[in-house]
Design goal:
45% of the residues lie in helices and 16% in strands. It contains nine helices and seven strands, in the order βαβαβαβαβαβααβαα. The chain has a seven-stranded mixed beta sheet, with helices on both faces. The relative contact order is 0.15.
Amino acid sequence: MMVCAVISTQNSADHIESIVLRTRAILEPDIFVLDHESTDDTVAIARASGAQILSSESDSKGLMISALEQIQNLGFTHAVFLNANNASHVPEQIPMFVNAVWQSPHCIFVAQSKGTRRSTVSNALLSAGALRTIKDAWNNFRIYPVEDILALNCKEDGEHFAPEALVRASWAGIHTKHLELDASCPIEHEIAQSPQALFLSVKLLGGMLIRFPALLRRRLAL
């Protein structure tokens, strides 16, 4: 098993050096940056700090799929994703993901905030669409089994990729497990309440209803 870290950035010049150096202390040298059209010096600072830069050229696959394909081609089996602009995505917590995936290499592990849990309508709809409980679906601090995720044929990109991947993983029989961390994720909570999030959640619920007979037969066969 080979694990890397993928740091998503967008105009993160003020703090990307610290994030890269702290992540390198955990997973040196397997640190990648996936930049989302920064207009500042984010990419140059990340490269100078020791991160490798993933190609972010736009194509029909989307940036997330392209990033996963690139790291798979480099031989990595698992990728920890974190967002440089979210202070709750703490590099020092990466070993928790790595230790967990050693025990269950075909699971997705998602950060779940400790303390008060704030439910959202989109999370409830996503859980219904997945036919299993999904918590903090919009929190993109997680570890993916790369080959398994690429096989899901996800259509969404950016912040919408994370919840779609969890729902499609459930349809494919891939389990999602949650790691309770000392972190709050206000950015993801705000995104989860947006009209775009609700639209995606309803769309995935509709996808489940179409697949329901086959999903039910598989569940009963287990």
